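User: I need a structural model of 18S rRNA (guanine-N(7))-methyltransferase from Steinernema carpocapsae for a docking pre-check later this week. Nothing fancy, just the predicted structure tokens so I can convert them on my end. Input:
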Amino acid sequence: MGKTDRSFAADSLQMIPLYLLTTAMSSHARPEHLGPPELYYNENEAKKYHCNSHIMAIQAEMSERALELLALPEDSPALLLDIGCGSGLSGQILTDAGHTWIGMDISPHMLEVARDDEECEGDLILKDMGTGMPFRPGTFDGAISISAIQWLCHANASDENPRKRLHRFFQSLYAVMGRGTRAVFQFYPENTQQSDLITQQAMKAGFNGGMVVDYPNSTKAKKSVTVYADVFVSKHVRISVFSLDMAWTDVRNSLNSS
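Assistant: Understood. Predicted structure tokens for 18S rRNA (guanine-N(7))-methyltransferase:
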């Protein structure tokens, strides 16, 4: 396969497909109702999450499904972004598939668990996805997000506007995706209004696509995914752990030194 065109120009916008893979969840079990993720996932919750066999199995299944929807070329390692990577469970699936990945999450405790896991080979950034992506345009060959984007639909402070945060997120994500790439987001929609809000803001940012519903006749097994663009990579990447707002120059220097 030829070299992927990673360029991005405002005057030649690409239409990137968007797919939502939705999963139902009972309202009383929703952690996003209990406060912001960086507080909910404290040291204790992060460790319990990472060691829960049921969660591990679900994360693996959803991550494999997201990777399938990325439709990456076979035998071609890619540079992938894992948004809301948590303790690195989804990233392990990317590693097993032969890909290099960068994970970002707002919870320092989740990232500490990932960092301390010897099987976690991804590079980690502490970052609120609602403030945008800190990467150069056209960087990634694909992106996944497992059970994370629904957090942006909730305001945990008076100055937080879910609509604006979603738009900032999708707009910046659109920019860092390479041409011909996809991004897949599995999430738990609370209602149709939430699904519509996410889809509308993605469309405004330039994405197209649709909703993918697994197990449509089962409210317990139903899942949603968002897909954007797919990209390819030819270089292994390492970057520093825990840069809150890592400037692109820092990322580039880290890439060049790897």
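Before docking, keep this in mind: Residues 31-233 form a domain with the Rossmann fold fold (CATH 3.40.50.150).
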